[in-house]
Batch of 3 targets.
Target 1
Amino acid sequence: MSHIPDADKRQTVLIVDDSAENLTLLYALLKDHYRVLVANSGERALQICDSDSLPDLVLLDVMMQGMGGFEVCQQLREAARTAKIPVIFLTAMSAHENEQAGFDAGAVDYIIKPISAPIVLARVKTHLKLKAATDFFEDQAIFLQQEVEKRTREVQVVQDVTILALASLAETRDHETGNHIRRTQNYVRLLAQQLRQHPRFCKELNEETIEMLYKSAPLHDIGKVGIPDHILLKPGKLTPDEFTIMKTHTTLGRDAIIAAEKLLNAPSSFLRLAREIANYHQEKWTAAAIRKD
């Protein structure tokens, strides 16, 4: 007694032929191995493929009344939902030009009539295995892509939290810094978007870089954590010596970020822009220097 797989787990084969005799013969041959659907016309085959009962493989007669096998195969290939279903043509024609026309239409194989039961079973089994393997690798590729996107989002969250954690240090020292750094973020984004229109900067200032500039901007004053309170919080004008100390917040911020990068062991990390912003945000450029540069 032959073993019949669980019907729910069996692959589905659609037989398309306008001959009742051929349908009966092929159905009897395949029913113990696969879930079998039948269609006695090309139009009916397309209706089945447009329903929930999507086959894993199609055995398709070439010469039929009405819509022929080549046209059915072409329509299956043109629809995204059915484009990857393997089609094996059943034909009494053996001329090479007809075989080429079938392959051009999208068939994966030919079976010549009158059919041989062992050949039909072997060809169907082979192409269903190939489809199962293809589906498996496509599913794996989708899964891996989703995992990559998930890990990327997790890394992005870690980066964002790292930047915010460092920026919060500055807020603990200067009560005005909180609103200031948020305004600075918006200014940086607007300036970068405008500079992007300049030929000199359009290539470098892509969407990703502008977003990283926006996120890194809060770290521009991180070095203020190293400025003594009597200078940082002084209500009046700073003396020349005090101003000299205040100006060191740029290098203090740069060095703090460099130290963080060393811990990350990533000298070209996401903190690179933050390091440059902290170090250079107090530089003043004249219009003449900009034009010359």
Target 2
Amino acid sequence: MNLLERELHYPLGDTLPEPGSTIEVAPGVRWIRMVLPFALNHINLWLLRDELDGEHGKVQGWTVVDCCISQAESRAQWEQIFETQLQGLPILRVIVTHMHPDHIGLADFVCKRWNAPMWISATDYNVARLLTLAGDSAAGGEAAADFFAAHGLNDADAIAKIRARTNYYVSMVPSVPDSYVRMMDGDTVMIGGHAWRCISGYGHAPEHIALYCAETKLLLGGDMMLPRISTNVSVHANEPEANSLRLFLDSIEKFNALPADTLGLPSHGKPFTGIHRRVEQLQEHHRDRLAELMEACTLRPLTAAECMPILFKRELDLHQMTFAMGETVAHLNLLWLSGQLKRTHGKDGVYRFGALAAA
């Protein structure tokens, strides 16, 4: 446990759900943990006891929150959960916090398995649907390769691999449901007789939706409120001048309005309390990274590729490097768009960020 984590509290300690099983974290709320084949090696999913109006009155069952990527191991774990953890009740609804593969990848599988609707923001639904149909994504293909090259990535092998990675999203999200129920900021979703308020978040995904229940003081924070790591906040080829980091930092301020003893149920890591301090930690983390970039770029104009080792001091594989490049551009864009750095476009077609001209 690092020093920042010690400022938070983990009510369940180091207890984790076994594969294909669940742990009850609050009455009617069960925690599922599934393996991911990345450095970030797991995702938390949630089962909430629910009831919905049916043809012959109230139907008892469960709402699922997020679904994992499409892979055989996760499907098998879902089947085990269906068989052993649902108390003989059906899945009534699937809520997806956002369109990233580890959250929406198996939503179509679960929805079809139970003839259940998917609830998601309109923006994230349409982005996910577009990516499954187009077969290209921010993590690969021509546009992504050109975008990274324009920000100084000159490793020919890495650029070639990114250019060839045209089925990256589809490999983990082969399909999404044909229809959805829209969630928007401020909406109330009734789950098991409890009111859950939708809280939109930006910068990490197009329109991430977290859910807060005032009655139980539970926050399904998705990827917007993680206890151990800082959520990836990137700029992508399809919106190259996005101010993603500013959007993210503004979004997490919303969590300061929640009670201090709120129990955070994150998509990665363990259930925790101390959300107000976690917001401060994230603000401090990005403020420090921005200061490091300001200092380096003031000495001489730098590309995002040159700045990346300042933010990410460890060795990165290709998957991690694409996220790191996107996040480095997000930090530089904030400094540029706020008038703290100047961005230039060189004759070599590469963007550089440097000190403002002297008055």
Target 3
Amino acid sequence: MTQTTPANPATNPLALTFILLTVCLDAIGIGLIFPVMPDLMVEVTGLSLSEAALWGGAITASFAIMQFLFGPVVGNLSDRFGRRPVLLISMTVMALDYAIMGLAASVWVLLVARAVSGITAATHSTANAFIADISTPDQRAKRFGLIGAAFGVGFVLGPIAGGLLAGIDSRAQFWAAAALAGANAVFGFFVLPETLAPQNRRPFRWSRANPLSSFAAIRRLPTLGPLLVVAFIYALTFTVYPAVWSYYGKAAFGWSAGWIGISLAIYGISLALVQSLLVAPSIRMFGEKRVFIIGMCIEVGAFIFLGLTTSGLLTLLMTPITALGGIAGPALQSLQSRRAPADQQGELQGVLTSLNALTMVLGPLMMTWVFGVFTAPGSIFLPGAPFLFAAVLMVAAVIVFVATLREKAPQ
């Protein structure tokens, strides 16, 4: 693939636009399928909603497994062959993969295709590397912020688009995603330069691409052990939303794919506003420890409400309030960072990334299993049971966290 762009990529706004679109499409791909999952799983499996949800959990987990396994691989491939070929090939394969999902008549084809999409969406590290290549040190924070914003926009647009397109056909969102990914690949072919100079490339080694290597760093962070347990449980509870929200909305309230998409968008926007506007003032007023406890208590209340409510309208109205618990995550990250020495901050972030990826593998399997048990014929009908389970996990996280407060962090 030849370079057809200006020699100085730092002054090429179209290249940055391509990177932001790529990250946005990665996020759209995550959320796009959520609203249609109940109908799609019932269609391709021929099973009841409670049984089809188990397949949905497996498909969601397959996407997360591939991202976990191939994130380091894709990043290291970009260090060997350059950013441009990795990004363009990923976009092209993503377009083809979405087209396959649009045609899939078997749940096994859908499972494999979703796993492949997890690989092609594992380009976040390459996008970040591209930004680092073209930015001066004082530009990087701002441009990494743009990456985060693009991901946030995509995560909100995905469920909305999935819900609206489902009104046309249960596969329409896949064809739309294929068209967008294909158009972005063509756009990138003409505007994306190579930013990694040949002298800066390094041989590909599997030892560097091992996704499990970051777990070895846990033993080098002894003062963070309890907080890492809290972080794992905390992240595990939040998998209840992507894992069962669509099935929950359909079973509990009879929501269509459109309403499921709207509800997810409301939550995504509310969470973004909470984390961008309320976190800093809350920490200044109450301190990180109190903010984390307050946030977790709000989450416990929200999970119990979602587990027991029978009103879809009340659920929509309460969504912005349930999002207030989002103040807890950044407070916990700050506390963890304070406990890690300056020369181990990178190790800490690697461990947290791996722990979060692991929860996205385990969480959907657990949450959809609980949903299946409590919506199966002959059982107690309680579609909100996964949220009650999440509440129990969150209480456990609170207990572990309070216990850590008795331990003095290193100065």
